Amino acid sequence: xxxxxxxxxxxxxxxxxxxxxxxxxxxxxxxxxVAIMLGQDFTEAxxxxxxxxxxxxxxxxxxxxxxxxNAIQGEFGLSYRLSRPVAELIAERAPATLELALxxxxxxxxxxxxxxxxTGLYRNSWLSRIFLTFSLIGVSLxxxxxxxxxxxxxxxxxxxxxSFGRGDVVRLGWWSTGLLTWSGIKALILPAITLGLxxxxxxxxxxxxxxxxVLRTDYIKFARARGLPNRAVHFGHALKNTLVPVIxxxxxxxxxxxxxxxxxxxxxxxxxxxxxxxxxxxAADIPVMAAYLMMIAAVFVSINLIVDxxxxxxxxxxxxxxxxxx
Amino acid sequence: xxxxxxxVAAALLAVAGAAEARTVRWAASGxxxxxxxxxxxxxxxxxxxxxxxxxLIARNQRLGLEPGLALSWSQVEPTRWRFMxxxxxxxxxxxxxxxxxxxxxxxxxxxxxxxxxxxxxxxxHAEAVDRHTVDIVTKAPDPILPNKLASVxxxxxxxxxxxxxxxxxxxxxxxxxxxxxxxxxxxxYRLQSREPDVRTVLVRNNDWWGWADASNNGNVTEVVFRxxxxxxxxxxxxxxxxxxxxxxxxxxxxxxxxxxxNTRVLEGPEVRTLFIAMDVGRDELLYSDVRGRNPLRDVRVxxxxxxxxxxxxxxxxxxxxxxxxxxxLFPEQVNGYVREEDVRLPYDQARARAQLAEAGYxxxxxxxxxxxxxxxxxxxxxxxxIAAMWTRVGVRTRLNAMPLxxxxxxxxxxxxxxxxxxxxVPTLDALYSFQSLLATRNGAQGxxxxxxxxxxxxxxxxxxxxxxxxxxxxxxxxxxxxLRLYREDVPHIPVHHxxxxxxxxxxxxxxxxxxxQPYFRWTTVN
Lengths: 326, 526
Fold this sequence. Notes:
The structure holds two protein chains of two kinds.
Chain A: H1 2-26, H2 33-38, H3 44-53, H4 60-72, H5 86-121, H6 126-140, H7 143-157, E1 170-172, E2 175-177, H8 182-215, H9 218-225, H10 230-268, H11 273-282, H12 286-314, H13 316-323
Helix pairs in contact in A: 1-12, 5-6, 5-8, 5-10, 5-12, 6-8, 7-8, 7-10, 8-10, 10-11, 10-12, 11-12, 12-13
Chain B: H1 2-19, E1 23-28, H2 43-52, E2 57-59, E3 65-67, E4 70-77, E5 80-85, H3 99-109, H4 117-120, E6 123-130, E7 133-138, H5 145-149, H6 157-162, E8 189-195, E9 199-204, E10 222-227, H7 231-239, E11 245-246, H8 254-259, E12 263-278, H9 299-307, H10 311-318, E13 323-325, H11 349-358, E14 366-372, H12 379-392, E15 396-402, H13 404-412, E16 418-424, H14 430-438, H15 458-469, H16 472-489, E17 492-505, E18 508-509, E19 524-525
Helix pairs in contact in B: 9-11, 14-15, 15-16
């Protein structure tokens, strides 16, 4: 078990290295931070001075290695745009994104799994048809459009929920939470639904097809033959066996939710990391972009690891397989 | 008896009304990047800071000069301006405002880490004469120094020294400077709280010297600024009543906002002119199929491109009427504007083709138009229209539209044959435009720093020199001559002055300002 974790962590290193290299190489194309920092009026001498100050006159690999060296020490420098330490900026925004992503994932699981089970069991009922149609919309409509539609209905027409921002937040140490105030919870509803909708429909369809598959297997037939009640067959045997792929997908999707919160955060002006990233792209704020991409890579790597460990817990066959020394 | 009760009730209501908080919730797409008054010279920063800080000289609702922290000023010698300061002014944290603070603030804005070079470029140093008199000594006579000083905000020396902020924010520092998130001005509003990218709250400074003046009739007690990047969300927030004032509503939503009933749209011109600049420096044009020569060096080709543009169609369709068509370099709010020179070459496709043939390009040529797609109102659409119009007369135009960061990087590398630029004039004087855009680039501060087409005309350079040093009628004449030359030589193809719509809830009234800055001292909430 321990060696498994270590080997996984070692595999993660080259991934991180490649990500950091690719993202750093991309920055040559996002624009010239110097031009943006200097504004409208400057002399060539001022420009040269700033280029030197930022170390942009050095060869690419020197810049990259400097960046990597600093990054290993957790030092990402000062944001070009906001003149504040990057690590502090990201730490400030992380709670907003994580709360949003977590709520979206919970909505997706809590609604998607029951809906998937229902549509798997009662394939031809009218409710299943409604669910399936609804899931088609969720899969095919782009996130920003869903967000705007929700704003139009619930903010502009009905006036029930706020159209942007995070509401009032409460500080718990360095963490800021919107879950403890009424306005914070109200502000969370629309973005969380927008962000979770795609995942919700995905999980629903996945659970449905897995359920249908499992229900055809022999052990379900035996279970029924033993006279087990429907509830035990459906949830104790069938659902449990559909969970392995669902955990994989849901886990990986959690990473995707955090990474792709960018669009939702932009639509709802949600003050999270995604919004910070978008604004940094606009200003060619390389230190923030680099740190963000590294962090997202780290999130994906760790989620993968956690998913692998969860397999261990859910599927006994894996434990036996490794025990034999494969 | 009943009547008296009414009177008492009315009086009580009036008292209650006076004490009631009048809040304006204000949104725009961009958040100020810093609260340092001498660091970044950009509109999103100034729009907040000018509520908090005062300059020696203030601007009135028509952008004219008015006494600010200085009550009067005069040019006592050609290179020496004297400013008599207002007495009894206090900073928000209680310090007295004195001549020493002026000397400090001028020195601070002269630091290399300041982005305000254009406003202080001619200043040699400032010296305090007595507690309430300051002399500013310039390197050469500067007739428009007061115009420039209207943009240089005054800070407290003792406060800045106490917080280790005697220089504007420097990128090399590993630590954040105090002034990035804190302020201490003398202005009408105090900064109460600031969460970058989330919320900036200003509260009324009841001790502000300006409230004694009847023209500062605003009644706003609190301003809450919230950046909202998404256009649709910004409009939705205004319609749903979560926001009272939107500074940059998208053009396609204006009609809806006009008809919504509880919102209204205020329109006015901005001091920002869009034009097409051309590479007239290279011997062979980049991104073209012409080999060995540069068609844009020929004034007939430049005129042909000019006359191929159906500007009324752009005004009507692309801009939905929200633009002021122009034939010159800057709008009438700028000192030096001459109406007779604001005339376009007429739209005439046949004439355009004829001039191309005369210049030796009967079959036209290929060209790439570089354009930003998120900097000016409808910039990409304008360029699309122009590219189609040029193609129609035979100049086959590829459009290269990109976000502002790569766009500015590209043109600043001189890596463009033809591009569209929008130019604002913060000093409200013609020199700024001519010097930055049309003077020969020679490495000197300000000369030709935005002249990426490398236009160079000795006549123009002489006129720019005269604008820098001469005064009175001679200077106005130099500007007039430069505007004439601009029309004849066609270094740019003018497009239009941008109109800026502001949208607000019906209970807010405020003057529309051509510098695209709201002034809450003049804003009332009913």
